[in-house]
Structure formats: C-alpha cells, structure tokens
Amino acid sequence: MTGPAEGRDPQGVGRFDVPQQSPAPDAEPARRNGHRPVARVAPTPTTPADEVDTAATDEPVANAGDPAGARTPGGTEPAVADRPGDHWDRKVANGLAFLRRRLSGDYEVDEFGFDSELTDAVFHPLLRLLYRDWFRTEVSGVEHVPVDGPALVVGNHSGTVALDALILSAALHDKHPAHRYLRLLGADLVFRMPVVSEIARKTGGTVACNPDAERLLGGGDLVGVFPEGFKGIGKLYADRYKLQRFGRGGFVSAALRTGTPIVPVAIVGGEEIYPMLADIKPLARLLKLPYFPVTPTFPWLGPLGMVPLPSKWLIEFCPPIPTAHLTDSADDPLVVFNLADQVREIIQQTVHTLLERRPDPFGP
C-alpha cells in the first residue's frame, strides 16, 4: 500500500492507486469489445458495507459526457430511447375507459337528456371534420358571445338538411374561450324521429317552446334558435340567402322574460351543400315531411346524393342586443315584433357582407 500522499485521494473517498499492470484474463473480453469495467468503491468507516455492495454493481452508470445520461449494462448506447408515455397508448386507454363508463352507466345527463361526455367524445369530433376540413369554416365575432351566463343565439337557417345548426354548435364550442355548449331548439318533427330524437337530446337539443327555452336561459345556458324553421332550410336555391319570416317572435318573448341578451349570428355556406332545385310536394305529403327536395345529386345518386358539397363557410357573431330593460314588455306584441325584425335585419345585412367576402362559393 502506498503512502498517504499518493495512496488515498484528496477527498478521502477511499480509493487506492494501483500501479499499471496487465489486465486480468477475465477482463480481456470486455476490453476487447471496447468496454471498461465498472470501478467498485471500497467501503469506508462511514459507509456501511451493504450499501457499497448494492451500489457497486454492473448496472448502468450515469455519465456526464453522455447526452442521454445513462448507458446500457454493456456500456453501449440504448437502441431506442425510453419515453414516458406513448400518444396512441393514451388514446387506447382513454377509449377503453370511455367504453367502460358507458357500459356501466357511470355518466351523467341533465334533465333534458344532454350528455356532455358523449358529445365531446363522439359528436363534436365528427362535426369538427366537417366544419374545419370539409367546409373550411371561418368563424369571427366569438368575443360577442358571453363568457358565462345566459344568451340567446339567433341564426339564419338554410341547406335543405339542418347541418348549419350542428356546425354552429360545434364551431362555437371549439372557438369560444370558455368552450361553451349551445343548447339548440328544434322543431317537433325532429323529436318524433326515432334515432334523430335521441341524438338531438344527447347533444343538448330540446323542443322549440318557450317553457324549455326559459328554463335553459334561467339556468345560465347558451340557447340556439333558428326562427325561420322549415321555411328557411326548405327554400329553393333561387331564393338562397333571403331570410324568411321569423314567425311570431316566440324567441324574443323568452329572451325578454329572462332578461337575456340576443346574439344574432349570420351563416354563409349552408345554401350550397344541397342546392334545392325543386320540391315534390305530393311525395312530401305522402311521407309526412315538410318538403321532399330534389338536388343535383339527390335522389339521382341514391345514398351518395347525401354527401354535402364542399362549400366555403363563413360564420360571424354580431354584437349582442340587451333586453334587460324590456322585461316588462314580454307580452307586448309591438315590442316583440319590432325586436324580432331588428334581429332579422341585422342577420340579413351581415349575410350580404359575408357574401361579398366570399365571391366563390367553393373557393379556398
């Protein structure tokens, strides 16, 4: 053993300098492969021997010069870096957890049947493909929709099939900073159809009547209504973007009774997805439908005729119209009709402005 000056290291770890000598025979294969034996630390008076034995193994040792910070037991770089989680593994795990909750009934719906989890996991992703990739929708004016509290969103209706209502609800949820849900009011026919009625309830829809609208608004929800009804979506292509009558203004009465602001919204693009060239009224009466459309693709192409044309969509939310100062005039027909006409005029003018911004219906 050497003297104090050259035997023990300055920090007193307990290593001993060993003269250069030829490696032992059992170390030759490791040196021949370019590996360096791991140095073992001798026990010190302050270090228990069992701790030293545990640390002095041939396991990977952190190396300051190694970018990964570790090496494999053989001293070579790992073939594939170990990542904390895999994107697809998480997707599969989340999907299985979702199915388990659905099968076990471990989910919640409100008094109207709205299922927010199913809407987020199934319906909104499908609608997102439509409004973002197929229709290339541009949304503006979302800042006019309240961050919290009730509001009545009133829009123009078009398109032969009421896709504009679904697209509006999904786009508003995605673009709004608070990701609010739009509770749509639908016609009685929607809730008499077996499958459609279930989907409408699950996605937050309810019958277009004042009691339901007032209950939703009183609960602080965003409510969406299309006062044109079937007159809007069932009009011919020659009458595109000409707003129809707003009925008797029932939506205004609901807003006035609850003091809820009205947010007009203009939608351009829905008229071109199924251009309605004719209406076969005898067939519509036979099938008990409000109209039977004839488009360039339907019924000639059968089910393929239901694929919407990829028109360019623009959606703009207008500044809200306050109604809190008119709560005592909810039953005044003059006030109701004047406010309904004001909303209709705002939407019509905004539609014309959007059409000027979009000269080509199928442009980029």
Mind explaining what this structure looks like?
With 364 residues, the protein is of the alpha/beta class. 35% of the residues lie in helices and 9% in strands. The chain has twelve helices and nine strands. Strands 1-9-6-2-5-3-4 form a seven-stranded mixed β-sheet, sandwiched between helices. It starts with a helix and ends in a 7-residue tail after the last helix.
Give me the Rg, rounded. Answer: 35 Å
Span between N and C termini? 84 Å
Helix content: 25-40%
**Percent strand:** 5-15%
- Low-pLDDT regions: 1-23, 27-74
Shape: globular
Order of helical and strand elements: HHHHHEEHEHEHEHHEEHEEH
In this structure, how is the largest beta sheet organized? 7 strands, mixed
Please count the beta strands (DSSP E, at least 2 residues each): 9
Strand line-up of the largest beta sheet? 1-9-6-2-5-3-4
Tally of contiguous helical segments: 12
Oligomer: single chain
How confident is the prediction overall: mean pLDDT?
82
Structural class, please?
alpha/beta
Features:
alpha/beta; 9 strands; disordered N terminus
Short description:
Helices cover 35% and strands 9% of the residues.
Layout of secondary structure:
Layout: H1 4-7, H2 28-32, H3 49-55, H4 87-104, H5 116-134, E1 138-140, E2 151-155, H6 163-175, E3 182-186, H7 194-202, E4 206-207, H8 210-218, E5 222-225, H9 230-233, H10 250-258, E6 262-268, E7 278-279, H11 281-286, E8 293-294, E9 314-317, H12 333-357
Parallel strand pairs: 1-9, 2-5, 2-6, 3-4, 3-5
Antiparallel strand pairs: 6-9, 7-8
Helix pairs in contact: 5-6, 8-10, 10-12
